[in-house]
Amino acid sequence: MNAWLAAAAVDTAVLAPCLWRCALGPPEERLAAVALAGPVVTVLFLLLSQGLSRPSYGDLALVLAVLAPAGTLVFTRLLAGEPHGDAADEGTG
Amino acid sequence: MTGRHAVALVLLSAGSAALLLAGAAFARLPGRYLRLHALSAATTLGAPLTAAALAVETGPGRAALKLLLIGGLVLAAGPVTTMAIGRLTARQGREQPR
Amino acid sequence: MTALIAVALLLTAAFATLAALTRDPARQAIVLSGLGLALAFLFTTLQAPDVALSQLGVGTAVTPLLILLTVRKVRRPRAGDEPDRPAPPDRRRERR
């Protein structure tokens, strides 16, 4: 367990608030939680790549750094026309 | 080498602290617009600082350039994402007045 | 390393349970995106980066996108309705 893996283990704690906020509330708040989880997981990939001394794992971080904002923007476009706030409010999670 | 390692460790602890702060803020802040600020703390401080730490550790070369590119991507995408979510929150029309 | 795998497993289990318990498909798609991130992290800690790469592509972008597109297509007929109407399967409402 070197410093990079220890930092990765510490940084996984940030995913707990993401999980919690992802469980409650309207879609835009859940989307904020996922949008916070994206950079955190990118950092985790980078730290794992250095800690396990596998440089090829950095490709994962690169792919996620491109895909996560794109996915979030797609979500915001598609959720904008969503007439939420009706019967779907009950019984969520 | 040991000096570079020390610099990398300092940058890494700063990045991890920023990420942890963002996580705590995201859990604690009231109001959905305030929580968006926690998101920007993670993208503008946490991820680029950690990427810079790894780039310092690997030394000059293409690997460091790739790490800096990843950090720059996250840094550039953070405000865009935050603005998009904020606009979505405002448009959904159920926002609290704060 | 074992601690990281344990945390990733717990995270994946929590996200999967949450995705199964969420009722609204739009919210479920967002939780599913988070589940994709957690699964990719789990695969990386288990040192399977190729699986994690495909999981990233499929789980965080494509599957939630397909679900949201489907939800949008299905819900469009009652998009102009009153919000508190239970939306019966009424064919006349489709043309708005």
Automatic annotation (TrEMBL), chain A:
<keyword id="KW-1003">Cell membrane</keyword>
<keyword id="KW-0472">Membrane</keyword>
<feature type="transmembrane region" description="Helical">
    <location>
        <begin position="31"/>
        <end position="48"/>
    </location>
</feature>
<dbReference type="GO" id="GO:0005886">
    <property type="term" value="C:plasma membrane"/>
</dbReference>
<keyword id="KW-1133">Transmembrane helix</keyword>
<dbReference type="GO" id="GO:0015075">
    <property type="term" value="F:monoatomic ion transmembrane transporter activity"/>
</dbReference>
<protein>
    <submittedName>
        <fullName>Uncharacterized protein</fullName>
    </submittedName>
</protein>
<keyword id="KW-0812">Transmembrane</keyword>
<dbReference type="InterPro" id="IPR007208">
    <property type="entry name" value="MrpF/PhaF-like"/>
</dbReference>
<dbReference type="Pfam" id="PF04066">
    <property type="entry name" value="MrpF_PhaF"/>
</dbReference>
<feature type="transmembrane region" description="Helical">
    <location>
        <begin position="60"/>
        <end position="80"/>
    </location>
</feature>
From TrEMBL, chain B:
<keyword id="KW-0812">Transmembrane</keyword>
<keyword id="KW-1133">Transmembrane helix</keyword>
<feature type="transmembrane region" description="Helical">
    <location>
        <begin position="37"/>
        <end position="56"/>
    </location>
</feature>
<dbReference type="GO" id="GO:0015297">
    <property type="term" value="F:antiporter activity"/>
</dbReference>
<dbReference type="Pfam" id="PF03334">
    <property type="entry name" value="PhaG_MnhG_YufB"/>
</dbReference>
<dbReference type="InterPro" id="IPR005133">
    <property type="entry name" value="PhaG_MnhG_YufB"/>
</dbReference>
<dbReference type="GO" id="GO:0098662">
    <property type="term" value="P:inorganic cation transmembrane transport"/>
</dbReference>
<feature type="transmembrane region" description="Helical">
    <location>
        <begin position="68"/>
        <end position="90"/>
    </location>
</feature>
<keyword id="KW-0472">Membrane</keyword>
<protein>
    <recommendedName>
        <fullName>Cation:proton antiporter</fullName>
    </recommendedName>
</protein>
UniProtKB/TrEMBL annotation, chain C:
<dbReference type="Pfam" id="PF13244">
    <property type="entry name" value="MbhD"/>
</dbReference>
<keyword id="KW-1133">Transmembrane helix</keyword>
<feature type="signal peptide">
    <location>
        <begin position="1"/>
        <end position="19"/>
    </location>
</feature>
<dbReference type="InterPro" id="IPR025383">
    <property type="entry name" value="MrpA_C/MbhD"/>
</dbReference>
<keyword id="KW-0472">Membrane</keyword>
<protein>
    <recommendedName>
        <fullName>MrpA C-terminal/MbhD domain-containing protein</fullName>
    </recommendedName>
</protein>
<dbReference type="InterPro" id="IPR042106">
    <property type="entry name" value="Nuo/plastoQ_OxRdtase_6_NuoJ"/>
</dbReference>
<keyword id="KW-1003">Cell membrane</keyword>
<feature type="compositionally biased region" description="Basic and acidic residues">
    <location>
        <begin position="78"/>
        <end position="96"/>
    </location>
</feature>
<dbReference type="GO" id="GO:0005886">
    <property type="term" value="C:plasma membrane"/>
</dbReference>
<keyword id="KW-0812">Transmembrane</keyword>
<feature type="domain" description="MrpA C-terminal/MbhD">
    <location>
        <begin position="10"/>
        <end position="76"/>
    </location>
</feature>
<feature type="transmembrane region" description="Helical">
    <location>
        <begin position="52"/>
        <end position="71"/>
    </location>
</feature>
<keyword id="KW-0732">Signal</keyword>
<feature type="region of interest" description="Disordered">
    <location>
        <begin position="76"/>
        <end position="96"/>
    </location>
</feature>
